[in-house]
Every structure is written in structure tokens, then in C-alpha cells.
Amino acid sequence: MAEQFQVNTEKRQETTILTPHGDIDMGVSPQFREALRTAQESHPRRLVVNMGGVGYMDSSGLATLVEAMKLTRGDGTRLVLCALSDRVKAIFEIARLEKYFTITGDLDAAVQA
Amino acid sequence: MTDHHVQHAGDDPGESAPDLTLHMRSSPRLLAGAREMVASLARRLGFDEVSACQVALAVDEALANVIRHGYERREDGPIDMLVWLLAPEGEPSAPPTGLKVVIEDQGRQVDPGLIKGRDLDDIRPGGLGVHIIREVMDEVRYEKRDAGGMRLTLVKRGGAVKDGGSPASDPPAEAAHGRGSVHG
Known about the structure:
The structure holds 2 protein chains of 2 kinds.
Chain A: E1 6-12, E2 15-21, H1 29-40, E3 46-50, H2 59-75, E4 78-82, H3 86-94, E5 102-104, H4 107-110
Parallel strand pairs in A: 2-3, 3-4, 4-5
Antiparallel strand pairs in A: 1-2
Helix pairs in contact in A: 1-2
Chain B: E1 20-25, H1 31-44, H2 49-70, E2 78-86, E3 98-105, H3 129-136, E4 139-144, E5 150-156
Antiparallel strand pairs in B: 1-2, 2-3, 3-5, 4-5
Helix pairs in contact in B: 1-2, 2-3
């Protein structure tokens, strides 16, 4: 059963790390979008979304990340996604969007990307 | 009080009864339960984890489109999800290895010819649901229902891994790259 969705935020110098936990679908993507927008309000140099706690994501989550990509590009923030599960990675590939995002294998690589 | 059953009068005479039927409301909170039920069925039919997740994803996207477009985000619209277990083609008495999922609603009707995935080169939020559904399922068919609303038929075959092959390695269905259409 899907756990309750939540997003944790952590700041490390000029990097903000968002860590969503739980499935991302139409029901929770507004909460995910709000967390991304709030994080972007402080215009960090780097915004890392650690997807290690997301076991499932649909196109509403993908749309939220595309929106965040456009928002951060306009602000000069580097958006980095990391620790995608195979299932989440698959949806990026189906939508052929993986080439538009900076994606790293783990958080350590993401904060240096 | 809203009746959460889709009216079936006049639909598909002669169609065998589904193996499983789920009546639900058009609430995003119910998506997880619906997709996880389908994923669980797919795994038991022999789908590998990626393929089972793809079927669940297609069902999730289809239901989300009904909520978003058919009912314009109203949460009390009836949706029926009907599931048939499919035997391998040409082997009707063999154990089932595939799934047919039919999703019916009583929401806004749309010309099926206008339901297309958007151009993937147009990088923007939204509009990916129909593309994803067509990409991961073997058959996808939208129809207007005589009794009102829409019917979407999804088929995924070949759950069981045979002779070293995997359903996950099947070539993807042709993607629809439409323009000026209803996107999901």
C-alpha cells in the first residue's frame, strides 16, 4: 500500500535538497509542485530532487518536474535529479525526457553535478 | 447521493462477463488502490516487475484522464474498471498470461480521433498520459459509449516469460504524435 506522501527539505550551503517520499500521482502532485516552488523561491544555485524514496510516479509527477525544469532554468538554478528507481526511470524513457534532465545515480554525485 | 455504477444498458451485447469489476468514484485518492490491484494481478500472471508497473501506469494515466477531462476534476463521477484475464493467442485453454482492462465512465464524450498524445518534441508540462498509454500497452481503443461517456480498452499480452524472452523487451506500440487534439 502506498505510504503517505511527504517532502523533506534540506539546505547544504548553496544547494537545496528536496526528498519526496511515497508515490507521486495526480492526487499528490500539487503537493510536490508546491514543495518545488517553495524551494525555488530562495533561488538556490543547485536544486537537487532525491527520488530515492519514490517507488512510483505517473505523468503528473513528470509534468511537475518539467515545470520545475523550466522555472529553474529561468532563474539560473541547476536542477539535478538523483537516485531514480528503475520504475521511475522507465517513465522518463517512455516520455523521452531523460535527455533534458541532469540525472545522477546518487545524492553524493548530485550535490557535485 | 450519486450512484457510483456506470450505466451499461446497450453496451457490448455478447461480451463475456469480466473476471473482475471495480466500481469507483472519480477521486484522485483512489488511483493508488486501482493501479496496485492491476499491478498485483499482472505479477500473478507472470509479468515481470517493469511490465507489471507499466500496466499499472497505463491504468493510472487512463483513470487520471477520465477524472481530469471526462469529469473535469469532479470527484463523484462513476468509473467502472472491468478486467478480463487473457489466455495466450491460439491457446484458449491455456492458463491466462495477459490482461484486458476496460475503463468506462459517464463523463464528457470526446471524438476518439481527437485523443492523441502530444508531440514529444514539445517540452512542456502535461499532455503525456495518452502517449504513455499507447507506448506501454499492446492495444488501445477509445470509443464513445451509447449510454453516454467513454470506453477505453487496454490489452497487454504475454505475461509469462517464454524461451528467454521477456514481455518487457516487446517492441513498443506505435506512439501517437498528434497535434491540435485532446491531450491526456
